[in-house]
Give the backbone structure.
Amino acid sequence: MLKDTLCLCMRCREDLGMRTGWITSSPCAAAPPRDTAGSGSTRNKLLLISFDGFRWDYDRDVDTPNLDEMAQDGVKAQYVTPAFLTITSPAHFTLLTGRYIENHGVIHNMWFNTTTQEKKQYYMTQFVDSYWDNGSLPIWITAQRQGLKAGSLHFPGTAAKYKGEIVRVRQVEPRFYDYSNETDWRLNIDKVIGEWFHQQDLDFVSLYFGEPDLAGHKYGPDSPERREMVRQVDRTVGYIRDKIQDHGLTDRLNIIITADHGMTTVLRGGLVEEIVLSKIPGFSFNDIKFHLVDYGPAGMLLPKEGMLEKVYQALKGSHPHLHVYKKEEMPARLHYSNHPRLLPIILFADPGYVINGLIPVQFHKGEHGFDNQVMDMKPFFRAVGPDFHKNMVSTPFETVNVYPLMCHLLGINPEINDGHLDNTKHMLVPRKNMEGNNPEMNIQSQAVVGLSAVTGFLVLVFIVTTSYTLYKRNSAERSYKPEHAAGEEKMKQTSF
Ligand SMILES: [Zn+2]
């Protein structure tokens, strides 16, 4: 059991003393020359940034001058709603594909094999191509296929190959990486802005930072340490915008900054009855073939043959803060039911509670993975750049809508997805030439122009014909039948 409970995921590496500061850079693949055929000259570049676990309201108890300035210069959503399960790899892959998690299939941070009992933690799962390449293409690949140059630094999913293709400019973090080091953050930013956007002329880059998730887990979302990390994020946002300015990219680069999920305080200290599956009457791990628990507030169980109903009945209603579902009975709004990788029984806890297996082994002060309706699970969303309105506060939207927004900004045709541009286009300034970048919009525009021309021509023909008829009629009336004018008036009315 211990190997199952010894968590090496990114959430826990700090606790395991993995702050090594050891930095290595993966070589960047050279990108081929850009195919500019069909691309318009008005397309702006796009930088997608994720600060892992940055809750929507983290700027409320900390001074964040750079984020505030960015909001004045651009758009700030009140919050956004992530897909369920609200954990890192699944939620990030939703940003990259616009699909709910049951549709893109990256259902957990961990890869697992229910037959061999093998599990891979967050980092090693990054390298399992088949786990990510599961029917949904991330935006890098779609952009590359349509002639754009894409890059990614540390973003979940970067290491994998999709239909034989990788994001061509990429940097994957080493095995034991310090995700919190501000100096490294700046080196990574210099690389993305200076080398990738400025020198290599990339069109799109996704950039990932592992904080303030780690601080939120370790110290809790209400801790001074989390607030200090938000200050570091804010300084970093200022640094990014300065670098963009230094390289003359401000008017040609849109920036979207968001996160995968939020964070909430874990309730402990004898105040609450913890959820420990082994203590539940009628439940036994002897009835379970494979389980994924001890991972925050959600878990999955594969009962042994013939044991599903027994396990389900034992767990259902066993704890007032534990929700137990057969996977096909999961609430449809969570979109976490319809995928073969999901195990037959899905568990999730109310805010503040985590699900333990044999004994309590989770000691984080903050957690995520809860229902995406819980306000503490909502991330922040900011955007700035030539295509965004200034000083706008947007109503909330789901993060599945970020993907079609990004495709629109890049002028590429999206893959099938669960979002819609209608949910975010209010944030965009109308730009006459933007549609020229988007083949789909281009066809629509051409159709509208064509239809207008035909309509105009027909109206003109109608006016000329009518005028001519009236003129002739009036002339005839004046010349030959002045006495029958009243009768002709009736005829005119009926003939029209
Ligand atoms: Zn995360």
Observations:
- The pocket of zinc ion is lined by residues 52-53, 88, 213, 260-261 (CB under 6 Å).
